[in-house]
Structure formats: structure tokens, C-alpha cells
Amino acid sequence: MPEPIELKTADGVTLEAxxxxxxxxxxxxxxxCHPHPQYGGTMRSIVISALFDALPPQGVACLRFNFRGxxxxxxxxxxxxxERVDAETAVAALADRLQHDVPLIxxxxxxxxxxxxxxxxTRVDAWVAIAPPLVAVHDLDGLAADPRPxxxxxxxxxxxxxxTEVTEIAEHWANADVHVIGGASHFFVGRTDRLVEVTSGFxxxxxxxxxx
Length: 212
What we know:
By secondary structure, the chain is of the alpha/beta class. Helix content is 26%, strand content 25%.
């Protein structure tokens, strides 16, 4: 069962979070950033929940949290500015719970993907950006030279950003793998299984997890 935890940001905001650990040693850690709070996004949104439920049995430690101002988290929405601090706080919290040689992957969906890509903490070993609109990323150009692995999982029929536009941008990034999920909309309804499969494959390539 997931463990409810609280995270304290550098500016004193308490965030609601949940931690799901595998039954055996964690082969990898995943921090999950949810979609835009002003459009109903929470840590329980469909894609975040699908990954949070599926990956711990595969040996992946997962931490999901609510950005400031969402549900049980203190503070107020800050239009993608202090939300980056929230994501950094979650990275630090999961890193503290992992052995030092276990890779940590920062993952987000939609607005959460932009926030994940905005964090350049040295404890982050890789990123998974799911349907990132690439409109709220801090220092987008800085990703081009960053050698850490990046997976961009895009929706073929994304309503908010054409996947071909995102692909063209990511072509200039070091160590970036772009995967377009056929038949998917931005919300991945009916396609979460495929999204979990793609994400799981990337995670286990970085660090093969122990079997459940």
C-alpha cells in the first residue's frame, strides 16, 4: 500500500505526497509530476496513477505529489515558477530513500512534464516527459547539451501541441528518445497500457529492476 508522506519545500510549503516502494530492493526510482492544476490536474490523474500503480511491482520506487495549492498541499499555484521547487523537493525526498547507486528518473505529464524538464538537479539521472507542451520549461535550450537520457512519450493526436513540433525541438537534444504513441490523445484514454509499457522499457534499460 502507498505510504502518505509530507514534503517541505525550501520556501516552507508543505506538500501532500505518496510513496510506493517495491517489495524487494528498488532497482530505480521515479518521481511523478502531475498535469496543470488549473485544469484539474492532481497526483491522482489518469497517467500518473497508471504509472504509480504499475511500476512498484516491477521494482521501481515511485513518489507522486501534489503541486502547491492542489488538494492537501499548502500554498498557491505559481504558474510554473515555484512548482519547479516542488519538483526539486520531491526529487530530494525520493533520493534520500534510495541507495546511492540507484538511478532516479524525474517524470511528468503535460504541465508536469514541463516542470520535470525544468529541474536540473544532479540527483536526477534521466527524464521521462509525457506529452510535454514545452511552453513552461525553464531554460529549454539548456536541455540540448545535457547528456542525461531523456524519453519523450508523445500522443499521436495531442490536442495541445503537435507531436511533430515537439519532435523537431527534441531532435537537437543530446541523448533524447522520442516515442509517439499511436492513436493516443493528450489524455491517453485507452492507451495508458501502452504508455506504461514504453515508460517501463526506458526505466529498465537504465537500471534493470529486480523481479517482483
